[in-house]
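Q: What would this chain look like folded?
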Amino acid sequence: DSVVISPKIAGYVMGVAVGDNQSVAAGQALVSIDPRPYRAALDSALADLAQRKADLAHALAGREQSKADIEAFAAQVSVANANAIVARKDAQRFDQLVESGIVTAQRRDRAAAERDAAHGTVRAAVANARASRVRLSASEAEIAQARAGLAAAEAAVQSAQADFDGVNITSPIAGVVGDRSVRTGQYVQPGTRLLTVVPLQSLYLVANFKETQMRRMRPGQHARIRVDALDGPKIKGVVDSLAPGTGSQFALLPPENATGNFTKIVQRVPVRIRLLLTPAQAARLRPGLSAEVEVETNSGGRD
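A: My prediction, written as structure tokens:
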């Protein structure tokens, strides 16, 4: 189960930390890509995030100011109404006093002007109170906009952070490096095949048996394997599982047998064999070797 190592980002390779056929541990550094453009992109995203946070704080402060203005203007409306009532009553009293000749008409006119000014103050206070409520609604809209901008900035930071983290490529599993084509100074694109990590400690074998040989084959049965590249005794194994279909069934263009001229061809069924290796055998085995497998169908197994 080898793993092809490919970059998630584009850039120039700054260094290759492993060589051909080198053993690596899970998490070990393999390749590094020039981080400078991605560091700059991350810094820009962080700066934009800080700006968005400031915008939200400003919008929240504006809402609190609008609430305070509403309370202040409500108090002004109450004071203006009280003053207007007093001014109206004063004007009425001066009207009566003028008729009695106690005060002059000039004093009456001044009281009437004070009454009209008080009514104007009431109207101005009511208008200010209405405007403050409108500003509160605008502040709520600004807060919603600021929060949306903040969410977008946070997503941009996460994307920039993921790109920046991609400059250092590490091995996802333990194994041996093979098929290394990456070189320092090379420009790579996302998905470029750099190298392959082969987990030699987890080797298994897939044997393609004829369908006529599958009648008594079951998982758990013992197997003996002769590998062309090895000498000495045969390798022991156990039938691990049987494929859910023949090899041709999973081909790119599966055969269609619903024709008049059909010639039956014996199909092959992939069978996975778990290897029981000695240290010496494990050190010499490699994926892709040719082998011949015998399964002891009378050795029991799981139905």
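The two ends are 27 Å apart (CA to CA).
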